[in-house]
Amino acid sequence: MNTVSVLIGGQTGYGIHDAGILIGRLFARRGYNIYMMDDFPSLIKGGYEFVIVRADQEKIGAHKDHIDVLLAMSQDAINKNIDRIGRKTNIIYDSDKVKVKEGLGLSLETILKEEGTPGKELYVIIGALARTLDLPWSLVDEVLKKHETDDIESKLKAVSRGYNSTSKNESLIKGSVKSLPVINGAHAISIGLLKAGLNALVGYPMTPTSPILEFMAKYEKDLGIHLVLPESEIAVIMMALGYAYMGKRSAVATSGGGFSLMVESLGLAAQAELPILVVLGQRTGPSTGLPTYTAQTDLNFALHASQGEFPRFIVAPGDAEEGVYWSGVALNIAWKYQIPAFVLTDKTHSLGYYSYDEETIPKVRKEEAILWDGKGIYKRYLKTDDIISPLAFPPLKDQVVNATGYVHDELGITTENPAMTKEIADKRIMKKQKLAEEMKSYETVKTYGSGKTALLCWGSNKGVCMETAKILGVKAIQIVMLSPFPKEALAKALEGVDKLIDVECNSEGQVRILLNQNGFKVDETVLKYDGRSFSVENLVEEVKKVMR
Whose CA is closest to 208, among 174, 253, 250, 246? Predict the structure, then answer.
């Protein structure tokens, strides 16, 4: 088989997610690109969860509805996936809990008693999957020993029993790519921030950005960074601004509900010219909405959050490589221009797992901010020819480092002078213009394929739009940077396009609105706002409807 999709489903809280990652690693080690999506309710235990792991010889970033192998750990895995089961779908199931007419049934309770490996049901099933796809035992053994070091002997016994309980059905040939690491979008964002010199991450756990906190917690001591979880979201952003005031690169990880409480402090960051990086994980809303499901609903919020007018940098990565690269760029931009910067993600991207190839992106590194030369009296908001006031951090002997949310003069002393008020506003305008000009040297709009019809996407819809465009023989256009708006780059991407179809996971078409505001016309929209991401088959069908 050149490509395969595996669905594993069962009760939430019993390892379905981890089993999916292990399956993905087996495929990756075999030389395949993978993408994994996880569908789970907002419950610690109970309810139904399923994971789809897709492996392909091509670069992928979306799931398919068609399933080649179904691993059923509960009856719901059968009942809720009837539409995904085809004539050739192989079903491997726990015969103690699942009733189905066809497939390979294994009494996991009996097997685990015989092997003396309680609680290792999923490993038996994974072993059976590996043999069904004709994966060599040496590969299975290698992957488990590398990634499953805890209680490894028991796990190997369980996997071996499953492996030997079935027979080869399909041959998963060796893939065409090198063995790549498997990471999710949250890991990618974390890596990018660290490469750009992150010193501190401050957060209040909220799906889908919680994995960023978990990642930083795991490596906090090794990396020498600070991870702080304050008592509220207001405290989160204020502490992050405190870090910035002291010269430490900081970021906050949050979702819409948490960011709502940070908005006033965002204005403080803009007025005081304190760099801040916000990772904003979008989810179905408003209010609590669906906390563990996906959406692209907070673009308008990020564009307009807080009172007053000020520049902001907003990017929306579409896969793991972009997560690393653009998160690093965003942190550097925040410090170079002393402005708020945003990385927009969502559950599809943040909790989706991708094959990650570092060699395909530019090197991410820390870019130094403009610092005070130490001469004379320090003027925090000094007027300069290049717009940017040099930074200095306390304590400084015989100097004052001001930070204020009030209109101020060069020293940071508050004023209500109308000329000074206009001058500071003009400074913010010129920062935005300077930033927009600099970003012309970056690939802020990407194109894939060709044709007079084009699909327009942003963020996590990159993968599914690329694949749909290839199937239908049309062009795909991805906007990576959303503020400053990349007018020239988009105009170039749209050359020769007669029909533009906007694809988004919200009910209003927020990028379509943004395009209209900037003089671009969208001909059709394909919107999905039920909390779930597009599958390839789903988007192909919807695009065909508006192409007629």
Answer: 253
Domains of the chain as residue ranges with CATH: 3-163 (3.40.920.10), 182-360 (3.40.50.970), 370-442 (no CATH), 445-547 (3.40.50.920)
Look up residue 454 and give its two tokens: 């084009």
Peptide bond into 395 cis (omega under 30): yes
Measured CA to CA, the distance from residue 403 to residue 423 in angstroms comes to: 17
pLDDT tens track, the chain, 548 positions: 789 999 999 999 999 999 999 999 999 999 999 999 999 999 888 899 999 999 999 999 999 999 999 999 999 999 999 999 999 999 999 999 999 999 999 999 999 999 999 999 999 999 999 999 999 999 999 999 999 889 999 999 999 999 999 888 877 778 778 899 999 999 999 999 999 999 999 999 999 999 999 999 999 999 999 999 999 999 999 999 999 999 999 999 999 999 999 999 999 999 999 999 999 999 998 999 999 999 999 999 999 999 999 999 999 999 999 999 999 999 999 999 999 999 999 999 999 999 999 999 999 999 999 999 999 999 999 999 999 999 999 999 999 999 999 999 999 999 999 999 999 999 999 999 999 999 999 999 999 999 999 999 999 999 999 999 999 999 999 999 999 999 999 999 999 999 999 999 999 999 999 999 999 999 999 999 999 999 999 999 999 999 98
Structure tokens at 313: 């940098």
DSSP 138-185: HHHHHHHHHH--TTHHHHHHHHHHHHTTS---S-----SS----EEEH
Residue 330 near residue 364 (C-beta atoms within 8 A): no
Strand partners, 284: 290
Using CA atoms, how far apart are residues 390 and 141, in angstroms rounded to an integer? Answer: 56
Per the DSSP assignment, residues forming a β-bridge with 348 are none
Cα–Cα distance, 199 to 343 (Å, whole number): 17
The H or E element containing residue 212 is helix 210-223
Q: Which amino acid is at 500?
A: L
Cα–Cα distance for residue pair 475/452, rounded to 1 Å = 7
CB 182, CB 21: distance < 8 Å: yes
CB 448 within 8 A of CB 478: yes
Which residue bears the tokens 């929209």?
A: 525
The CA-based angle 183-188-193, given to 5 degrees, is 150
3-state secondary structure labels for all residues of 393-445? CCCCCCCCCCCCCCCECCCCCECCCHHHHHHHHHHHHHHHHHHHHHHHHCCCE
The predicted model scores a pTM of 0.96
Tokens 């779930």 correspond to 532
**Which residues face 184 on adjacent strands?**
353
